[in-house]
């Protein structure tokens, strides 16, 4: 799944010496605080990206709110079980959840979901974002995204692409590109990133959308070719690779993000205090450098800006899912 950042990629963060910076990170003494232990629910299994981020952020957050902070994995039904539990919790700050952007995609992917991603939660803090890229195996006779689209137009449905599964950001990112390019591609879903990448490298599939940091070593080894990045601007890690917009496919931007949310109705002063503490955590040089090394860009934002991102992505991906006729099956 897209949120399943391998443990080895982020495990080094756990050993970082997060020294207190009370002036920057401590919540305001006037802000209401949770009146008991705080649980960060992760609606996915241990070792996934949201789980690791929750377990790394909790020791930083605990002394700043004066309450124990524990992580509770409630996996199942593509994250729906844990997400529903948070939607039903009291908005007292004692129940939070760590989510990737699949959280907003699932709301349109499944026929029914037990939550509203916009109205059912309080956005607390956006933590990180990750860049995605359109890549192909070296046998594909296209050197850029425009040539790839032209090839696909000449061979409707004959070019396939891999993804870690239906409805993942990688799947939807390629589906969005296909819509903007006006081409028909064949989706091959896998159970996770590893087998999908293996078949891309084995030239059993033609293309894929990959995180930039995952693609770069494979590009350096000549195993794949990077045609474009799907971010708004060129990636600092791959400055010579144009964006999809530069290739003529405006509106095809796609990325990964991770953030912390709570039940709807949380007190604004409490949210601002939690937001300040977590923004300070991602701004720590040790945190920022380690995240950047894994292609995750620290992305501190206000709760309001995070809420706007959630709503914007929900509506945007709902349109892609509808137009591309994508289902969870």
Automatic annotation (TrEMBL):
<dbReference type="Pfam" id="PF03401">
    <property type="entry name" value="TctC"/>
</dbReference>
<comment type="similarity">
    <text>Belongs to the UPF0065 (bug) family.</text>
</comment>
<dbReference type="InterPro" id="IPR042100">
    <property type="entry name" value="Bug_dom1"/>
</dbReference>
<protein>
    <submittedName>
        <fullName>Tripartite tricarboxylate transporter substrate binding protein</fullName>
    </submittedName>
</protein>
<feature type="signal peptide">
    <location>
        <begin position="1"/>
        <end position="25"/>
    </location>
</feature>
<dbReference type="InterPro" id="IPR005064">
    <property type="entry name" value="BUG"/>
</dbReference>
<keyword id="KW-0732">Signal</keyword>
């Amino acid at each position: 799944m897209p949120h399943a950042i391998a443990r080895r990629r982020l495990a080094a963060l756990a050993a970082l010496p997060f020294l207190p910076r009370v002036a920057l990170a401590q919540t305001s003494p006037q802000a209401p605080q949770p009146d008991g232990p705080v649980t960060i629910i992760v609606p996915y299994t241990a070792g996934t990206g949201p789980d690791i981020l929750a377990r790394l952020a909790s020791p930083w957050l605990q002394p700043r709110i004066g309450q124990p902070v524990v992580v509770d994995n409630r996996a199942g039904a593509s994250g729906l079980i844990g997400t529903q539990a948070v939607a039903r919790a009291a908005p007292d700050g004692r129940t939070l959840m760590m989510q990737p952007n699949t959280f907003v995609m699932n709301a349109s992917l499944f026929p029914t979901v037990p939550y509203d991603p916009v109205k059912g939660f309080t956005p607390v803090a956006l933590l990180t974002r990750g860049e995605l890229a359109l890549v192909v195996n070296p046998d594909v006779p296209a050197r850029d995204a425009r040539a790839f689209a032209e090839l696909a137009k000449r061979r409707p449905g004959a070019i396939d692409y891999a993804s870690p599964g239906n409805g993942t950001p990688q799947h939807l990112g390629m589906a969005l590109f296909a819509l903007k390019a006006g081409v028909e591609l064949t989706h091959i879903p896998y159970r996770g990133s590893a087998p999908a990448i293996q078949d891309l490298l084995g030239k059993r599939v033609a293309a894929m959308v990959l995180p930039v940091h995952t693609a770069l070593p494979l590009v350096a080894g000549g195993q794949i070719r990077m045609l474009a990045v799907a971010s708004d601007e060129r990636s600092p890690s791959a400055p010579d690779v144009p964006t999809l917009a530069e290739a003529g496919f405006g509106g095809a931007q796609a990325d990964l993000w991770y953030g912390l949310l709570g039940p709807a109705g949380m007190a604004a002063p409490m949210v601002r205090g939690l937001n300040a503490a977590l923004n300070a955590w991602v701004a720590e040089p040790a945190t920022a450098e380690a995240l950047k090394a894994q292609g995750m860009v620290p992305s501190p934002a206000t709760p309001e800006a995070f809420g706007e991102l959630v709503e914007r992505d929900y509506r945007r991906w709902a349109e892609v899912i509808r137009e591309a006729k994508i289902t969870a099956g």
